[in-house]
Amino acid sequence: MELSENKALRAFAVRIRMALLEAIHSIGSGHLGGALSIADALAVLYGREMEIHPEDPQWRDRDCLVVSKGHAGPAVYGTLALLGYFPYEELKTLNRNGTRLPSHCDRNKTPGVDATTGSLGQGTSQAAGLALGNRLKGRKNRVFLIVGDGELDEGQCWEAFSFAAAKKLSNLVVLIDWNKRQLDGYLDEVLPLGDIAAKMEAFGFDTVQVDGGDIVAVAAALERTRQGGGKPYAIVLDTIKGHGIAEAENTEMNHSMPVNDERYARWMETLQAELTALEE
Questions:
Q1: Are 248 and 256 a contacting pair, CB within 8 Å?
Q2: How many Å apart are CA 20 and CA 227, to the nearest integer?
Q3: Lower CB count within 10 Å: N or C terminus of the chain?
């Protein structure tokens, strides 16, 4: 990856963090930690890997993204707004009456959202079904799935993974946000999952584990999924919940956090400084 592309994608990730912060601040609180932890992955997916047409959200040959951890909607909305799927100012309507941006992703409301999610685990089955449907129709579209590590407590995830491997859905790419925390606390204290990468490999996935905050590593992992083959792909993203905002990273229970005016101003100032440095 050229240095210029690296800096552009890192800047995109910072803008996504600023946009999701804009949305969550508008309503006072929200699912901050798990939205921040996938910002880098979203930057690479939408900024480099996925075939999309923002001017035509329903373009038949687009790649699809299923964000099964639907509570990370603010990160998705921030990304879509930056790409022009809807006006940036609309981020301030997050989760309000009549909004097109509900708390969790909804394909019937938001331009650019490919799957309605929020009931954890169900997005995995949707993604597998989309991938199979594309193959049966002879389409080259790929399906990308972002799933949370706490979400893997749901048995439906493993049923869907078993199905995807059995059907050899090499057009399916699963990105697991391994940020080590969930709503009730740390993953290893709630329900230890062991070696997630080894489990995905055992389920029949072509699997790699990378630093989910390293743009180059994420891009390289996604690039190798273009080769096709007889297996679905899994990328375990080693992330930090709240990544990109130090105070959020260091808050014990950061699944959902209040964002008052003082925090908003301080965090936005820090992110703006980071963005300015990348754009120099």
A1: no
A2: 33
A3: C
Q: What is the CATH number of the domain that holds 166?
A: 3.40.50.970
CA gap 50, 279 in Å, rounded: 24
Cα dihedral value 119, 237, 132, 51, nearest 10: 110
pTM (predicted TM-score): 0.97
pLDDT one-digit tens code per residue, 128-138 = 999 999 999 99
Per-residue pLDDT tens over the stretch 51-72: 999 999 999 999 999 999 999 9
Number of domains in the chain: 1
Nearby residues of 76 by Cβ (< 8 Å), 6 or more positions away: 42, 65, 67, 105, 113
Query: What's the DSSP call for residue 60?
Result: T
Owning domain of residue 268: 3-279
Question: Residues near 95 by Cβ (< 8 Å), separated by ≥ 6?
Answer: 27, 30, 101, 102, 103
> Which pLDDT score, from 0 to 100, does residue 148 have?
97
Token pair for residue 187?
């993953």
The C-alpha atoms of residue 234 and residue 195 are separated, in whole angstroms, by 13
Structure token digits, residue 9: 């994608």
Contact 127, 65 (CB under 8 A): no
